[in-house]
Prior knowledge:
Keywords: Cell membrane, Membrane, Transmembrane, Transmembrane helix, Transport. It is found in: Cell membrane. By secondary structure, the chain is mainly α. It has a single domain (26-215, 272-474), classed as Growth Hormone, Chain: A. Helix content is 77%, strand content 0%. Helix 1 (26-42) packs antiparallel against helix 8 (189-203) and helix 14 (346-365) runs antiparallel to helix 17 (448-474). The longest helix is centred in the last third of the chain and has 36 residues, at 408-443.
Amino acid sequence: MNVKPAAADGSVARPAAQDSPRSTHRWFALGILALAEFLVVLDASIVNIALPEVGTQLGMDTVALAWVITAYVLPFGGLLLLGGRLADRYGHRRLFLLGVLGFVAASMLAGLSVSSGMLLAARALQGASAALLAPAALALVTQLFPSAADRTKALSLWGAVAGIGSAAGVLLGGVLTAAIGWQAVFFVNVPVGVVVLALIPALVTRDRASTPSRLDYPGAATITGALVAMVGALSAVEQVGFAHPITIGLGAAAIVLALAFVLIERRSSNPLVPLSVFRNRNLASGNLAMLLVGGAMVALFFALSVYMQAVLHYDALAAGLTQLPLAGALVIVAGVTPGIVRRIGLKATLMGSLFVLAGGLVWLAASPSDADFVVDILGPSILIGIGLGAAFVTATQLAVDDVDGGEAGLAGGLINTSQQIGGALGLAILASVATARTGALEATGAASADALTGGFSWLFLGAAGFALLGSIAALRARTTR
């Protein structure tokens, strides 16, 4: 990517070149950065199984409990692009540490919550802090590993972390809630965050001073508002439906603000997101693929959790343990993906992984209401893990690999935004499809378990469609190895 923001005086603002490595222990530093990213992804799903206990203790009904999830996703998805640009301007390490500090403080407040208002405020602070640390962390990874071979290995680990965090959320949420209580799903972040805060300053050097560019405040305000309105509209679909005035109003606001953002960016001398970045075919293809993979993945884990408990009658802990084969396959494949990329190229690996993911989802859609885990679910779970592991690695690498250091934060913000918005979009669409199918089957007199299974079957098929659309998006990418 060759487009760089202009400073107030017309000069180009970009970080000064590093004449020494950002870290002499870069693989250790990568592990600590990945640990922080793991917490960010984990917190989007770990609270799901704890919600019934939260509702009982804090007196929250079903609608209020849905906001425990939404209060995290709204600021996270809405502030990611701004967070990436702030990291580019003020320093990636500085913004990363600030984000981790806020995340730890918010997690402590969430665990100590004695009212629904306190919990929701803490969750919003968690989301805003995650929007600071996530793009800054990915930017640091790309700077720690400038060579193509090492960066591929590093991004393989990064992609695996993103997938494992979502899968592990269900497992850890069940274990911690059953053993300690719902507060533990928040308190677990605190010691891990403290370790990150203690080690990163010793492992990663400070960003070199650079000429600061003027921040595009109108662009930041409109894109943040558009993303928040979009995520809010998608969350409202799940709670009140497509035709509700809240959904329609938020959707219209998102469209108007997005159009205003495009106009502002075209006229700005120092845009928040230079629209020319999307001429980079790999960045555009990687983000579109991640949008669709995120949509398929979030809907998948939501449906699996409900299917295991409501249809197959597994308890919370057992439902979590069923995710282990999927997570294990994801980890193994993420480790071997760099070798595959070297042999057949990044584009071919991404497309192949999405076909594998789609195949696993179609297989899972055939599971009956009395499914046996080993016979009906284990096989497709492993196939899905293989597809997700390779897809996350290659989509992330495609989106950030050809980006200048001065725009690394922006690229990190874009790929994280794609994943979050895709997840909200996929869950809203596919959950609505599943609900409609379940209602239609119940109207014909089908048993509750059979009706739920039929709805989830359509959801899994829809997720497979998302994966196939992602493979089409990857066609536009340049072939790289």
